[in-house]
Amino acid sequence: MQKFKKIAYIFLGVIITVIAFTIFSNAAKTNNTDVREKTLSEIQYFESKIVYMFNALNNIEFSNYKISVEDISEKSKKSSESSSGAGNGSDDSSSQSSDSSSSGDSSSSSSEGSSSSSGNESSLDNTKKYSLEMKGVLNSKDKINWDYIKSEAELLQNSISTMTLDLYEISLNNNDILNFSSEYDNLLIQIKKEDKQKTLNELTKLYAYIPKFIKNCNKNEQYEIIVNTKLNIFNAYAILDSEDWDTMNKHLQMANNKFSKLLTDINLKNDNQYLINKCYISLNALQNSIEKKDKEVFLIKYKNVLEDLNNI
What we know:
75% of the residues lie in helices and 5% in strands. The chain is mainly α.
């Protein structure tokens, strides 16, 4: 009898151990999944900001229009209105002068009212006039808004510490993480100097780490392909000012090769197929623009491709 009790206790102990191990494993797996999803979200945010910096260096904006705001002084409006009716105002002035001469109290009251009116008029707030202003590559200004880029880069630095900790937690290559942080410091230096070409060079080096990071925290192969496609596009875009069209063409051919997998791999086909086809056409148009050897034409095609990639 005692033998059976001993076996029962052992059996019960094994069951409890298995249940505890299963619960612990599931909890660890869930926690690991949560960390990867959080890290992916941080990488996506970082990637979007880097893309913005790329675009800002050539005044590329995805919106076709921007709101222009103009201050209109109420005092100026009143002055304009009164000058337009100056002829009628002179007759009224004569009449008022005659009336005021007949009464001292009335004159005093009028003087005080005039003073009060003047004070109110000078303190009137300005109103604003809003209008839509066309924004495009061909009518963009050459001046780079470095102040805004500096602000964005400094704010983005604050999120890197958190992202770095999460990257370590998902067991990424330590050297990649350290080099990534170092490259961002190099980027800040070039932005501070307002050196456009060196800033572009640092941005491409920094963006090259994003596909590596994504691979460790995301099983969505489509997203990996899109990021790798962008990387090759940015490699071409970064040397636009040097007008090295042959090298640019090679980078764009690699981008085309990367992206074409979304068209040929049956396992990757999904509901976004229309957008994928549209993007493939835009990507080919970008590569074909190299033949024109025209910067503005290239930038127009570049803008279209990035918009299509972001919509997939």
